[in-house]
Target: Amidohydrolase
Amino acid sequence: MSERTVEPPETVLLRRGEVHSPADPFATAMVVEAGHIAWVGSEGAADAFADGVDEVVDLDGALVTPAFTDAHVHTTATGLTLTGLDLSGAPSLEAALALVREFAAARPDDRVLLGHGWDAARWPGGRPPTRTELDEAAGGRPMYLSRIDVHSAVATTALLDLVPGGGLREDAPLTRDAHHAVREAALAAITPAQRGEAQRTALAHAASLGIGSVHECGGPQISSEDDFTALLGRAAEGPGPRVIGYWAERNVEKARELGAQGAAGDLFADGALGSHTACLREPYADADHSGAAYLDPESVAAHVVACTEAGLQAGFHAIGDAAVATVVEGVRAAAGKTGLARVRAARHRVEHAEMLTAETVAAFAELGLIASVQPAFDALWGGEDGMYAQRLGAGRARSLNPFAALLRAGVPLAFGSDSPVTPLDPWGTVRAAAFHRTPEHRVSVRAGFTAHTRGGWRAVGRDDAGVLVPGAPADYALWRTGELIVQAPDDRVARWSTDPRSGTPGLPDLTPGRDLPVCLRTVVGGRTVFVRPGE
Model:
């Protein structure tokens, strides 16, 4: 975790609001001192602190919550998406190519043009651009356009020419090793100034959404060592969201040298469903193969043993049921060598973990694995007619992202976005989990909120943070929102929880169609990192 080199912040009293705290479910005030929560309580008791603080903030009814943690982010790629070409809203191939022409014309000095977010499955005809079409639209310049899941891309001939060794002339979207090579060539062409702009933009955007921490998932197939260390250095200088880095390489010493929390994150056991590269036990419904396996159980076990003995977290990207089973088998084998207690204490992680069975859910609980999951995936690709159903058939698609089963088994959840795969959107993420397209996988808003706040801290080994109680880090956000309620999948639970005698603090109404809360201020370690203009 990045350390900040700034002076301790002043003492602040916040009052006349709604403070979401298990220390006092009816709290309306809070004191922050030396970067930590010092007190939480009632408005009447707040009077005793008013004369002894440096600043008093009148909340005027605003909601105060812990700042969110996004447990899976690609920060530079997110910034490049915010500053680059966004194709997520393109309704057709023709519209996407028109946007490429406009973008290329507006960026005459860029050495490489970058874009993201196309999804041919949602276009009439279902066809991505050919290399010839993209060459024409980009004016013959180097251009890289990643698919929405970032596991495949289309590229121009001029960019393929920059790949060391050459030889790439595919007309179809690039996947696997070819995609990795082209992505590395595109990122290598980015200037340090472009990279700095992208990182600043991404972190500022995160702060504006009430996000106080992000888990950066870097690695040699994703970004670069320079990108990773530059981001950690930028976050350490502050002010801004905290950045906890994971380096996806089976090299414990490299991860330690780079300042990573673990040799984890997107250490690929497989690919993604949208690109037909997630590794399945049975073939895809719309393809004659079962995806790609990038690791075997022996490799997983060796890595988990090395990380456990080094005091670092291990972690793997695993989406398909076969890939998840491989990770489970490997972690179990590692526990047989180091001891189950040591493996559980290490809090190793599995990113995405979409296709789970009752057996693998139980294994996650047994092995103490953290499920770092992205509820927005279901909102975007779930449902009877969504991409999941196209790739897997409706039956298998309904089994994906079983958040309720994970919670019932006692598996710790950490919510994230995988931005730029889906946008940074913390309240939208909680909504997606609470209103999952498959009703039996839904969780309460309270459980989803916990997974997106305290869950992210627990996923890095911290049980003392992500909650507004005395002694916790003063990472919090102020929100303008409507009535606070308790929402749960089972109406009987909701009715009981809203009884004042239950002492359950309320949260915003996230029913689909309602406006999401608006972030007014974000504070990290007691220091303000975002204030909404006009507030």
